[in-house]
Amino acid sequence: MVFCLFISNLLLATASLHLTERRIQITWDRSPRISENLISIAAGPGIFFNNQGCVFENSRFIKYIAALRPGYLRFGGTRADQMTFINASNPEEICDLRSLHKIQKPFLPVTLYREDIEKLINFSRNTSKRMLFGLNLNSRSKDGSWNSKNVELLLDFFKEQNFFPDFELGNEPNSYLHHFNYTMTPEQQANDFEVLKLILARKGFHSSKLIGPSTTGRGPTALNYFSKFLETKPPVEFAAYHHYTLNGRNATVKDFISPSSFYAYEDEAKLWTETSKENDKKPFISEGALAFGGGAKNISDRFVSSFLWADKLAMSALTGIHSFCRETAFGGAYALLNEDLLPTPSYWISFYFRKFIHGRISSLQTFDDNQQFYRIYNVCTNKNKVTKLIINPSKATVLRIEGKFESYQLIPKGRHLLSKYILINGQRPSIHRTRRETGSGSLLLQHYSVSFIRTNISCK
Ligand SMILES: *[C@@H]1O[C@H](CO)[C@@H](O)[C@H](O)[C@H]1NC(C)=O
Ligand SMILES: *[C@@H]1O[C@H](CO)[C@@H](O)[C@H](O)[C@H]1NC(C)=O
Ligand SMILES: *[C@@H]1O[C@H](CO)[C@@H](O)[C@H](O)[C@H]1NC(C)=O
Ligand SMILES: *[C@@H]1O[C@H](CO)[C@@H](O)[C@H](O)[C@H]1NC(C)=O
Ligand SMILES: *[C@@H]1O[C@H](CO)[C@@H](O)[C@H](O)[C@H]1NC(C)=O
Ligand SMILES: *[C@@H]1O[C@H](CO)[C@@H](O)[C@H](O)[C@H]1NC(C)=O
Ligand SMILES: *[C@@H]1O[C@H](CO)[C@@H](O)[C@H](O)[C@H]1NC(C)=O
């Protein structure tokens, strides 16, 4: 199908109208179907280490996370490789959600007790999230072989609870030298996955999928580990890696709206998807956000992060990524819910993405001419109508859109990039109701906006 998109720049200062016209070809038959589990969340044992396990019983937290269902709850991270399960009650059960953002010394061992695991199981059931549980690969015997003893106890416990999650084995194995002072090889990890597979079969975990290797980094050595692992034909259903675009310790507001940050993920997602597919696996991001290191304080948690996050979700869909587990649901400047368990702008982007973007995703148009930068993703929804996601981290623009449409524009409250609050069609967002605006023919795309445009154009 050919359909026309007339793009015009509205030069607000001079009020003159400069029009450019482009025709794009959209082919739906080869477009990837968007995974229902695309929007997923991540959390780690650090929550229990910080005495915040009660967050999983908090009704507000449950309500907001459940609104993003289905998807995965990935429970893992560095401490999963330092975790021991004890089938007993926690002797000093305390909880303080406000003790947030303690310095999380990354490499200390952590113990999880029976109630901790029960809380996770209950939370996963309450929110209709499938759990992806990160098992400890770092427990090694003297001869270097994987010591599965504590994992087996944990599996027995899951079984007693009639709970059969999916599993990772090892977190960021390509950084074991840095974390644990020895090298994990892709062959060793793949071999240990084979051992795990036998254990799961023996214990009756027939519905549990394995997901790995969960590498860190974006460069050639990380990609090399990832592809070497996949070349051994390991028993994993999905090829998992971690992705952060920026470094939270030095990222600036400019980095969050710079075209190069958008192009970086585009190039990398395509490359890693290609590597996954060459090995007959679907790609899966088992942990990621925009900036690592706890996020970029006062940036990741503000409106300015909305553009890259919407783009990251859409680009993940376009490259066929099955799930993107957002680090984190709670805790750190990159959390979806803040320390009062209220939604951040990234939460609302996730929520409206889940609401409006489903079906198949086709082309991406990028408009980038130094003056103006925006991206349009075209989606064919389950109702066979075209919906557009328009990410505009620059000036206002008029777009011509064929026929009638409903528009949902998200902008920062106060029109300030560092706003903590987001508005949708001028109102505060709510998981229960959303104000609809309609138009036809042309759309005024606002300055600093992320917009969902539901057209009545049939996909054909
Ligand atoms: C979560 O599920 C448990 C049962 O597993 C139930 O007792 C509890 O009320 C639920 N909590 C919420 C907030 O839905
Ligand atoms: C989990 O939910 C069950 C009810 O389904 C309840 O009996 C149990 O106490 C809960 N566990 C925790 C740790 O909250
Ligand atoms: C955990 O301990 C409880 C109570 O002591 C026991 O009933 C249960 O079988 C134990 N589970 C495992 C997996 O050892
Ligand atoms: C790391 O391992 C090497 C040899 O395996 C050892 O000599 C060295 O002391 C270790 N370093 C630390 C910081 O433990
Ligand atoms: C931030 O630090 C990383 C090293 O982790 C470096 O590669 C990058 O260039 C730095 N970025 C900026 C904007 O300074
Ligand atoms: C973030 O903003 C708060 C106030 O809004 C300020 O107190 C804090 O120092 C800022 N932190 C950083 C790292 O900029
Ligand atoms: C879309 O809306 C326009 C304007 O009302 C109308 O002319 C057109 O027939 C509609 N198209 C479809 C496919 O419903």
Automatic annotation (TrEMBL):
InterPro entries: GH (IPR017853), Glyco_hydro_79 (IPR005199). The keyword Signal applies. It comes from the Eukaryota. It holds the Pfam family Glyco_hydro_79n. Residues 1-15 form the signal peptide. Keywords: Signal. Belongs to the glycosyl hydrolase 79 family. This is Oidioi.mRNA.OKI2018_I69.PAR.g10986.t1.cds. It comes from Oikopleura dioica (Tunicate).
